[in-house]
Amino acid sequence: ARIALFLLCVFFVSSSPAGGETTSVFPGQKVGQVRGLFVTADGDPGIYSSRSDIHRLIDFADKSRVKIIFVQVYKANLAWFPSNVGDPFPGKAALKAVGEDPVALLIKEAHRKGIEVHGWLNILSLGANQNATLLKKYGPGILTRNTKKKTAIEDYKIDKQYFLEPGDPRVHKELSDLIGEVLQAYPAIDGLQFDYIRYPDTDPHYGYTEINAERFKKASGIVEIDDASEEWRDWKRDQVTDLLKELILKARVIRPGIRVSATGCMPYSRALYEAFQDWPMWIDEGIVDFVTVMNYSTDTEEYGRWITQIKAKVKDFSKVYIAIGAYKRGTNREIFRNECNTCETSGAGSCVVFYYSSLLQKPDLCRFMIDDEGG
User: Which one, 218, 233, 264, 271, has the greatest CB density within 10 A?
Assistant: First the structure.
């Protein structure tokens, strides 16, 4: 059944017109508005499995008028490029399968169609990877934690993932080195997007590593940490922002003109008080080129309210890209249509569909992406 759905979507791609200046992905499409697509590294089908998978992706993006592909190159401390910071095995396996560097090939083929490629990196999440290179190197002390007793590595897991502590200088150095590795491997890449650059937002009482706590006490003069204190909360937001600044500085020293962005949690209260990321400030102070906000509600009214909320939080709404959750189980054609229309007419800088593999598994959404009339 999965193969049949995939082939059906491929048929839509191959049979849809590629040319024409007046057609649009979604009804109400603004002329010149950027359209984006997230592409996971290990989707079904995977994009790093063969040359044909890469060409199929580029063809789909071109037919859908996508102008930016956010392609995953790093997740769970696994790297799809030569790396000492992350485990380079996935990249080596993909190199063998494709016969050449798959990310470099993807960039080259995308540029032929006038499509930008931004490297998508899951920064602070190690996923469920207990064999992560960084864990082997430093041990669990590099992971953020709450105050509960830890007796096994599983005790550090949060929402089925391990999270690095953003207030740990070792994390800063390793991730800064990682950015250097990506840009060295791919000098033609157009941008970088930092995902999971935040604290865990599940039961948000983290940051209590020995290093982070001592740094806070020294900087603030506070001896006992009060989890509800503004000083502690502000400190954690600062750790996330400082890490972001350091990674961006590293990127722009190497590639002065590169576009750098981050993802932002929604709703805003979740971002500010649970994930401790002040992404509107990142936009307003020019720290990032744009933020892709994860507006994944399947309630179309809530989806619209969140966009209104975002507009009230930032000075320049064109620096907000809005991610649409095609992956959600409850996302059907009508919900997808309504959310795409709301996004496309909102004035946001881009509408970015999350994600490619989920579209291929839902032919009704896939057809909507490539249908000239959107319906």
Answer: 264
CA angle, 29 then 35 then 40, to 5°: 145
- The owner of tokens 């993932």 is 161
Tell which residue, 75, 222, 76, has the closest CA to residue 157: 76
pLDDT band at 367 (very low <50, low <70, confident <90, very high): confident
Q: Output the DSSP codes for 264-298.
A: E-SSHHHHHHTS---HHHHHHTTSSSEEEEEE--S
Distance, first Cα to last Cα, the chain = 24
Q: How many CB atoms lie within 10 A of CB 270?
A: 16
Cα(11)–Cα(172) distance, integer angstroms: 46
- What are the pLDDT digits (tens) for 146-162? 999 999 999 999 999 99
- What is this structure's pTM? 0.92
The position carrying tokens 């953020």 is: 144
Nearest-10 crossing angle of helices 89-98, 102-112: 60
Q: Are 154 and 184 in contact (CB under 8 A)?
A: no
